[in-house]
Design a protein that fits this description.
Helix content is 33%, strand content 20%. The protein is built from eight helices and eight strands. Strands 1-8-7-6-5-4-3-2 form an eight-stranded parallel sheet. The structure holds D-xylitol-5-phosphate and zinc ion.
């Protein structure tokens, strides 16, 4: 893979025109559609839930990359899989039985991801990295779009890329929060292979061109 996968976040879409915005993503160079689920408990904000995810799925021609920012995500894995999730990412900080939760996701036939808050050392993934398909490093504190990228993220990506290489894991590193045209190439060269972008894409005058440009990392 010599360009990053781009996963625009519909959190920044126009919710009154979701079909229009999902169709724009279908036409674009986006690889996945990132779906942010917030419960007002794990994070201090509520986004949307199962019916909206299913409505997105109805129009989406690209895989839904569902990021569960919720407590006890194991209670909802099957429901989000049924709503159309192809990737299900849970937070390390929300899962006391993470290994079991990962196996549960896989048993549903979905790809399994684990997300880390900015303060959680990447080394906590050491004993699970071979079991997961995706490791998501939050580059802002989860809960809101449009926040400033945390610069420490580059070093975290390098550390996690080293951990993945040592363990011969096939997990890919995804970055979420404050991604833009300036940091995307640097993140890719540090080892990230999937980039989530919300406000940078949807507030751009030409979102489709913006998505294509995010793939240009050389
Ligand atoms: C934040 C979400 C992100 C968010 C990114 O909690 O997980 O996916 O939509 O938005 P931007 O790209 O605007 O930082
Ligand atoms: Zn997200």
């Amino acid at each position: 893979m010599n360009t990053p996968l781009i996963a625009p976040s519909v959190l920044a879409a126009d919710f009154a025109n979701l079909q229009r915005d999902v169709e724009m993503l279908n036409r674009s160079a986006a690889d996945w559609i990132h779906v942010d689920i917030m419960d007002g408990v794990f994070v201090p904000n509520i986004s949307f839930g199962l019916p909206v995810t299913a409505a997105i799925k109805k129009h989406a021609q690209k895989p839904l990359d569902v990021h569960l920012m919720i407590v006890q995500p194991e209670r909802y894995l099957e429901a989000f899989r049924d709503a159309g999730a192809e990737i299900l990412t849970v937070h390390y900080e929300a899962c006391p039985h993470l290994h079991r939760t990962i196996q549960h996701i896989k048993s549903l036939g979905a790809k399994a991801g684990v997300a880390l808050n900015p303060h959680t050392p990447v080394s906590v993934l050491q004993d699970i990295i071979q079991d997961i398909d995706l490791a998501l490093i939050m580059s802002v504190n989860p809960g809101f779009g449009g926040q400033k990228f945390i610069e420490r993220t580059y070093e975290r990506v390098r550390q996690l890329a080293a951990l993945i290489a040592e363990s011969e894991s096939r997990a890919i590193i995804e970055i979420d929060g404050g991604v833009n045209q300036d940091n995307a190439p640097l993140l890719y060269h540090a080892g990230a292979r999937a980039l989530v972008a919300g406000s940078f894409v949807f507030s751009a005058p030409d979102p489709e061109a913006t998505i294509s440009n995010l793939k240009k990392v050389w």
